[in-house]
Amino acid sequence: MSNGWMRLDNAALIFPVIRRRDWANAFRVSATLTEPVDPALLQQAVADLMPRFPSMYGRLRKGVFWYYLEELSAPPTVQEDYAFPLTLMQKKELKRCCLRILYFQDRIAVECFHSLTDGTGGMTYLKTLTARYLTLKQGIEISPENGVLDWQEAPRLEELEDSFSRYTNGITLKDKEPDALRLRGSRERFVLHLTTGILPTAALLETAHSYDATATVFLAAVMAEVILRYQEARCPERKRRKPVKITVPINLRQLYGSRTLRNFALTLNPGVDPRMGDYSLRELCRVMAAQLAAEATPQQMAGRIAANVTPQQNLLIRAVPLPIKSLIMRIVYRQRGESKGCINLSNLGLIRLPAEMTPWVRRMDLVIGPQRSYPNNCAVLSYSESTYISMIRNIQESELERRFFSRLVELGVPVRIESSNQGCDTRRGRCDR
User: Fold this and answer.
1) Domain 5-155 CATH superfamily
2) Is the pTM of this model over 0.85?
3) What span, in angstroms and rounded, lies between the C-alpha atoms of 167 and 69?
4) Rounded CA gap, 211 and 230, in Å?
5) Could you give the CA distance from residue 75 to residue 50 in angstroms, rounded to a whole number?
6) Of the candidates 111, 112, 83, which has an alpha carbon nearest to the alpha carbon of residue 191?
7) How does pLDDT run across 285-318, given as a tens digit for each residue?
8) To 5 degrees, how large is the angle CA 199–CA 131–CA 28?
């Protein structure tokens, strides 16, 4: 950070503005070890990483024109993870720290307010934190590779940059895609339900490849198929049905070679219009793959970046006081932010660790909280021989995840289910595990 503070990156600007009393955009990454966690050693590891990850150790501050991050004077205190994943990050907590370090039995978890970083940045921090902890606990030396950084190295400038500003081409992409179907249910304020499906990665890939699809495309196609059938059952009249689109985050680091640890992802919304006719799963895979391939190019994504960055760089807009700017941003977000997709499906892919760590880490997980207006969210990663699909919701109805996992089983992919059974109050109330 410069002089103890840092501007929010382009993607992070919206999250403080649109947060509500019962919602804050946050995500969780976790590593389950083979032995119980020593909280004192974990606290030491958190302190050791503070100079290496200055952008992660920040608290949210409100300026005259923009929100910004202020560097912490001391590392956050590790806490026992006694409640439910992603308990609400309230405003007063964000003013103290936007990062949580949690432990429970053999699990280390990191929860981030999205203004700090995205899933890739959060996973890099978790890997490095776990590596440092294992060095302290087991006395092993771990190679800085596969996303584990050298904790003794000074932070690199490219890790702290706002890559959106660097990779914009200045040519704004005009995007007028139609609104998608809105999933709805009986909303439960402050209550979340989490269901995790555990799949053999080999079986998932074999089935996906039989449809000439990647795992991400296949899962998005299955989700779209399930939602199409869901809408069909509730809206028999075809001409009244709405487009079904799956919001898929694209890790822009892979397109541009960026090494930033801050946010650097944008979303695409591949999907179909059911008014045009019925689609088989194979056709859905083909449509999803074609749309993602056409849009997820450096040229097209640079135009999307420009659409977000150009207004921020406008001198007139920059001079507008934050309260007025926040009002405008909330209006724009309601019109465009989440109206183009039905559900988010975020896949971090295969998580690799240095060889020295793998005997001590038996599982990795990603959980992304519901979006502001999406009642459901879906996060995916693979580790070792398993793929973990975490579906979270803030509504009573569990029909979507039931249909989704049942369809995977019908397609020949075995699924083992873990569930919170009953919801948990996200204001830090206890709940059944």
Assistant:
1) Chloramphenicol acetyltransferase-like domain (3.30.559.10)
2) yes
3) 22
4) 22
5) 7
6) 83
7) 999 999 999 999 999 999 999 988 887 777 777 7
8) 50
